[in-house]
Fold this sequence. Notes:
two-stranded parallel sheet, Spore Coat Polysaccharide Biosynthesis Protein SpsA, Chain A, globular, 7 helices, 4-stranded mixed sheet, alpha+beta
Amino acid sequence: MVWGDIDEAILDRSRASIAEHHPELPVHVQRSASGSLLDKAKVLELSPFAETLYLDMDTVVLGALDFGFEAARRTGLALCICECPWARRYGGLTGDLIEYNTGVMFFTRAASAVFDAWAGCVANIDSSIVFVHEGQTMRMPLNDQAGFAKAVDGTGFVPFVLPLNWNFRPKWHRSWFGPIKVWHDYGPVPKPILANNRAQAAADAVIGFSVLREVG
């Protein structure tokens, strides 16, 4: 799903990475008519597939994703906890609700209760975030993940939680074990990361600990 004016080269990069590792998978690009990030809450309704992998356009697939689809078949929904796991950072949420990252989601129609609840609440809660950047207090006016956290909590749905390798955010994730499955960043994947990934993805590989500053 893409919003507004985009860098088509970034979108093409993501699509090419899917074709490299899963040439058998059809790809559907949904362009938001409203331009609002909150439209992501409609992703189940908009998907033409019985089983869906949703990807933000700044993602790069780096390996086989079969297990992610299998995990979604088990529970209806598989994804990663957000790099910031505290959904209470949003103005309209309190307590210890978990925030998930909705940039990479495997799902089936079995998770319709969560997606219906998400679509029903996302525009009605305060999803603004106050944060500090380079010493200055700033405010992000809205975000789709607040509504998603509320929907998961409100429905009592238990998603399959994948490790961070399935939604690797190099701006925040600094270390990991084994191969990265999905790189989630606008920046290019460093060549040493690709080489390390190939080695770690080998069937006979000894799973190793990697640090971004040393590998990348």
